[in-house]
Write a structure and sequence with these properties.
The complex is a heterodimer of chains A (about 575) and B (about 425). The longest helix of chain A is centred in the first third of the chain and has 32 residues. With about 575 residues, chain A is mainly α. Chain A starts with a helix and ends in a 6-residue tail after the last helix. Chain A is built from 23 helices and four strands. In chain A, helix 1 runs antiparallel to helix 3. Chain B has 17 helices and one strand. With about 425 residues, chain B is mainly α. In chain B, helix 3 packs antiparallel against helix 4. The chains are: A mainly alpha (about 575), B mainly alpha (about 425). At the A-B interface, helix 6, helix 7, strand 3 and helix 23 of A face helix 10, helix 15, helix 16, helix 17 and strand 1 of B.
Chain lengths: ~575, ~425
């Protein structure tokens, strides 16, 4: 119990150490503060062990029977999900904090910045360990403001505009979350997570929004929660704040992309039993996630700035994660966000080196096609064929036979596996850029490694699912709730298959000098799409237009009333 | 005379005695300001010590504490100057009358309210300028308030309730009686705007606490409608403003209208309502004091668009203004958020549309307040501006506001009304029609 409280307490202490003291000891204090951050990380690991062995930890500083009597009921509920998130956040924080101490050395605002980093970690830890929706919302809101402050540079107009956009867009989503909380309390009379799940399951409520249209209470509440999660997880069309905040110092992005942005995924997982009651919300999540994944990845390909590329990559990955939630694969979403968080933090912390190197070496990054290259060998093609068309089949068989995941009853898993197939094929297509795969040894090593990674990943994901949701019935019920209509399921599978095979065929034929007859508009599509994707689908401009439109309307309404502003 | 009546007279009389006593220092603005602050602290001490002996107010004890505290803060935040002498004296006078309205017998309270309306209208008339013809509307609204206060005293039952409600709507601004609020916040001299923005709404809340339970359904429905229109109207008007005091007046109108909506739905004014009204008033008061800091440095008629980059040269001011802005826009962990959430979670929503409008108005506050604060604090540092950080008294005033707002955000709602229990958890079963 004490361990749980020590984690946020040490982070707060670190912030205080950095903030309080004379200016001449600034750097020394910044270094000293790394220790409490490290201890907090150890505390989180200890908490994870404790929770895994003895079950959830509950600490409440309020009376359960009158939760609304307290303005803000402070309490902690740490289960396996919370403990994992705490470990991830503090682990990443240790790295980011230590990196930042050097990165911001001699910067005028280093003290404020480092304190803000510690404070953000504190807020994140309190948010993921909240025992009720009210406390979660409190820290959720504070996080929105801290993001605004962190993505801030007083004197730079672009940064200010980006920070303001970040704050206002997140507030839009936060308002939906607040509405969801108020509605949940009205319908179920509690904001305590466990109590809320029980009451929502036991008392199905129908809401009549207008005559002739009914919606279940769980759907209304989860839809509002989902909009709240969309904001923090940068889902289309509320994703614009993420690229808008890219002027912030690089370590902030490491923290943002590894920790803060996972808040949406965490919220959905925390409320998984509630989301599991509403197929409609899960389907909406699936659609929003898929659209975000596709658009995010496409826009990423067209960016010419390393931070923007990584930013849109994150948007795509978050879309992928939300899509997993929409398929009922909640634990996989958490697994994904952990893996993505670690990966993206590493990449962001390294991107400064890449930029530095590019400035020093005129030939870096490498210019493609400098010399005429030979075509791909048969072996290369064979390797690619096996990895993209044979291995997926093997994975399906292993998943069904060895891991005993009932694929026939679980649409979500199948769609998920097919989506993996598409994305891994897309990755393998980069083979066409590799000219080295020309020996059996390399080919065999590559296939073995790939198989190893895939099976370890599958095994790890399955083990992680069992760790996070020990009751297999829960997992099955989520998959069942997320089941799509048969025609849609068939369509997704067919489209995935056709797309992958067609891409390979097209690539193979064009590589061998064959002419593939395509309508002119299809040929020109890639070029025509490049410009809008490079300009991020003009979403910034549309938001600007929307903002201007609202303000025009406001001024017109203002003029209508012959009041004080005349 | 019973003990509670005696104490009520003592609490209300102390600031009035202070107001008279302050006239002794009329020739010395510094000492006058110091004396007024000291007397408001004495008043706060008396309230803290004796409020337990006064009968419980429907809206709890919070207004009793907030009135002398805000009087003290607003006095602290204004510079000592010959032009501000009247506002110092009037602060104590209005404080005394305010306390009298809250804790005295109904007849005395109504008379005190009548007098208070007259004083405010008189002050506005004294500071009326031909350049601001709209202030006639405000003066007229307060005259109407005075008339209604008189009617509530003299007229028979149904009419007296309606008159009391209208008087409350002038104090705690509700469309179409909001012009008084706008005039008071923008036109009163010295520190008075930062005091009356809390005083009058709290008195209005006290009025509706007694009037609302008796009104018929039709009136309650009409009030809800006006409240929603007011919340939307206040937010829209605030978005369109560039002048800070007007922006704050419209912004607070929007928040007070939300309170009217909740109050009309529940037909009551609870300690939670007092928390919302008190914290909105206090946050607005803090922002008015913060704006006064800018006016002190760059002139009374300073254009907010001509000021920027304060965060560079005035770091303490920047931090305090940011925190105040957070509180005013309803972000946790400050009191406005706690009050708003308290009402959201305690009152059953009368309509989904009303909830949407209320939430939109709450959201709009992030836009107009944040935009103004960002414009002032950040952006280009101007060479023509001399940046001087807050003085000790200004720092104290703004810090106290922030700390009190924080404390009110974290304290339990039952803290100022021990006999009021938190709303029992309730839940809906079966089908719920939610489309009115």
């Amino acid at each position: 119990m004490t361990l749980v409280l020590l984690v946020p307490a040490f982070l707060l202490a670190a912030a205080a150490i950095v903030l309080v003291g004379p200016d001449r000891t600034r750097h020394a204090r910044a270094k000293i503060a790394a220790y409490p951050v490290g201890i907090a990380c150890l505390g989180a690991v200890g908490t994870l062990y404790q929770v895994a062995t003895t079950g959830p930890i509950e600490i409440r500083f309020y009376d359960l029977s009158s939760v609304a009597a307290f303005a803000i009921p402070i309490g902690f509920y740490v289960d396996r999900l919370s403990a994992i998130m705490m470990t991830l956040i503090t682990g990443v924080s240790v790295i980011i904090y230590n990196y930042s101490v050097g990165y911001m050395f001699q910067d005028r605002h280093a003290r404020r910045y480092l304190a803000m980093i510690c404070l953000t970690d504190f807020v994140l830890i309190c948010m993921v360990s909240s025992s009720n929706l009210m406390m979660l919302f409190l820290f959720w809101q504070v996080l929105s403001y801290l993001l605004y402050v962190l993505a801030h540079n007083h004197g730079h107009a672009g940064t200010l505009a980006g920070a303001f956009k970040t704050f206002t867009l997140l507030r839009v989503a936060d308002t939906a979350l607040l509405a969801g909380i108020a509605l949940a309390y009205q319908l179920y009379g509690t904001l305590e997570f466990q109590e809320l799940f029980v009451r929502a399951t036991e008392t199905p409520i129908a809401l009549s929004l207008w005559p002739g249209m009914e919606m279940s209470g769980a759907t209304a509440v989860t839809l509002l929660f989902f909009v709240g999660a969309m904001g923090k997880s940068a889902q289309f069309p509320i994703h614009l704040w993420l690229p808008g905040s890219l002027f912030a110092p690089t370590p902030v992005h490491a923290l943002l992309h590894a920790g803060i942005i996972n808040a949406g995924g965490f919220l959905i997982n925390r409320l998984a039993p509630l989301f599991g009651l509403s197929s409609t919300t899960l389907h909406v999540a699936f659609v929003v996630g898929t659209v975000t994944a596709i658009l995010g990845a496409s826009m990423m390909l067209a960016q010419n700035d390393i931070k923007k590329t990584l930013g849109f990559s994150t948007i795509g990955q978050m879309g992928y994660m939300i899509m997993e939630c929409g398929l009922g694969a909640f634990s996989l979403a958490v697994f994904h966000l952990i893996a993505h968080g670690l990966f993206k933090a590493t990449v962001f912390l390294n991107c400064g080196n890449v930029i530095h190197k590019a400035r020093q070496e005129p030939h870096f990054p490498h210019v493609d096609h400098q010399v005429d290259e030979e075509g791909l060998s048969r072996l290369t093609w064979f390797t690619g064929f096996v990895t993209t068309l044979f291995i997926p089949l093997l994975i399906l068989l292993v998943t069904h036979g060895v891991l005993r995941i009932p694929l026939l009853e679980s649409q979500g898993t199948v769609i998920f596996l097919f989506f993996i197939w598409i994305t891994s094929s897309q990755a393998i297509l980069t083979l066409t850029r590799l000219r080295q795969v020309a020996s059996w040894k390399v080919s065999a090593a590559m296939l073995t490694t790939l198989l190893f990674i895939v099976f370890v990943y599958l095994g790890a994901a399955e083990a992680f699912t069992q760790f996070l949701y020990p009751n297999p019935d829960d997992v099955a019920s989520y998959f069942k709730a997320a089941a799509l209509p048969d025609w849609m399921f068939d369509l997704i599978i067919i489209v995935a298959t056709v797309l992958t095979i067609a891409s390979w065929s097209y690539l193979y034929l064009t590589a061998h000098g064959r002419t593939v007859r395509m309508p002119a508009w299809v040929e020109g599509l890639r070029i025509r799409l490049y410009l809008p994707f490079m300009n991020r689908l003009y979403a910034d401009e549309m938001y600007q237009l929307l903002g201007n439109g609202i303000m025009r309307l406001v001024h017109q309404l203002d003029k209508l009333e012959r009041g004080w502003s005349r | 005379m019973s003990t509670s009546t005696l104490i009520a007279w003592l609490l209300a009389g102390a600031p009035l005695v202070g107001a008279v006593g302050s006239l002794l220092f009329w020739s010395n603005p510094d000492r006058l300001k110091l004396f007024s602050i000291a007397w408001s602290i004495v008043s706060l001490g008396l309230v803290a010590g004796l409020s337990g002996l006064v009968g419980m107010l429907p809206e709890g004890f919070l207004p009793l504490y907030l009135l002398p505290l805000t009087a003290m803060i607003s006095l602290l935040g204004q510079p000592a100057h010959a032009d501000n002498r009247l506002s110092c004296v009037m602060t104590l006078l209005l404080l005394g009358m305010g306390l009298c309205v809250l804790i005295n017998q109904p007849v005395v309270a109504s008379l005190a309210l009548l007098l208070l309306f007259c004083v405010i209208a008189g002050l506005l008339y004294r500071h009326h300028s031909v350049l601001w013809p709209m202030s006639w509307l405000g003066i007229g609204t307060y005259a109407l308030g005075a008339l209604c206060a008189g009617l509530s005293l003299a007229a028979p039952a149904p009419l007296s309730s309606v008159a009391s409600l209208v008087a409350s709507a002038v104090l705690l601004p509700l469309m179409p009686f909001h012009d008084g609020h706008l005039t008071a916040v923008t036109r009163l001299p010295g520190n008075l705007p930062s005091f009356v923005v809390l005083l009058l709404p709290l008195l209005g809340l006290h009025g509706i606490a007694t009037a609302l339970p008796t009104i018929p359904d039709t009136v309650a429905w009409t009030l809800s409608l006006f409240a929603l229109v007011g919340a939307f109207y206040g937010a829209v008007k605030a978005l369109a403003q560039t002048r800070v005091r007007l922006l704050l007046a419209y912004g607070s109108l929007s928040f007070f209208s939300m309170l009217w909506w909740f109050a009309a739905a529940t037909r009551s004014a609870t300690p939670r309502s007092a928390l919302l009204v008190g914290t909105v008033g206090l946050a607005t008061s803090g922002l008015l004091i913060a704006w006064q800091v800018v006016r002190t440095r760059y002139g009374d008629d300073v254009d907010p668009q001509a000021v920027s980059g304060l965060a560079f040269g005035m770091p303490q001011y920047a931090v305090l203004l940011s925190l105040l802005a957070l509180a005013a826009m309803g972000l946790p962990p400050f009191g406005v958020f706690a009050g708003f959430m308290g009402l959201l979670l305690s009152a059953p929503f009368p309509s989904s549309g009303g909830l949407v409008i209320t939430l939109l108005a709450w959201l709009a506050a992030s836009w107009y307040i944040m935009q103004t604060v960002q414009r002032l604090l950040f952006g280009v540092r101007r060479a023509e501006l001399r940046y001087t950080d807050v003085l000790r008294t200004e720092l104290a005033a703004l810090s106290i506001v922030v700390l009190v707002l924080l404390a009110l955000g974290l304290a339990p709602a039952t803290f100022f009304a021990p006999d009021q229990t938190g709303s029992a958890a309730h839940s809906v079963t079966g089908s719920l029609v939610w489309n009115r």
